[in-house]
Amino acid sequence: MHPDRSFRTDDRALMEALIDEIGFGMVFATTPDGPRVAHTPLVWTQDGAVQFHLSRGNALTRHLDGMTALAVINGPEGYVSPRWYADSEQVPTWNYVALELEGRVRRMDPEGLLALLETLSAREEARVTEGQPWTLAKVPESKLRALLSGIVGFELEVQAWRPTFKLSQNKPSDERERVAAGLEAQGSRAVAQLMRTLAP
């Protein structure tokens, strides 16, 4: 989390929307083998937890149950050039959105894992614009059992939210607009849009 308080938010709905919109993140934990990270889809449960699944062979899988871990969701980002400021004494920086979620992890039972996969595939299939949505029902039961045996589901109960929405809030509004225009011109449209809608 960035130390500048102007880059933080207490807007829980905004943070939950970020989890759902991005839908993918990293889970970090310190294990007896050293620090490890896993990259995984994330599902917000609406009741204070994020769920995810890992390959049974992942370096974190055998350690996570009962541990405190950190899930990180990275949102839009972009390099900010000093050329975009009217003030010539500015230096380069980076605007970005990130959310850190710290909490205790528990291993899910097989029914919970199956429900997670159904929720995850329904969420992502709803974003595919053509054709009929894919469902788990399309997988033969014997093959589904084999696939499920290769993954493990987890739920992280969020005990600490650490958001960073670094969107030039520490700059005057005219400078913010110049930065947003510069980011947009460079192809970083999402972070430019957030600067215009979320920054004061």
TrEMBL record:
Listed InterPro entries: Split_barrel_FMN-bd, TR_PAI2-type
Gene3D superfamilies given in the database record: Electron Transport, Fmn-binding Protein, Chain A
Protein name (record): FMN-binding negative transcriptional regulator
Species annotation: Novosphingobium anseongense
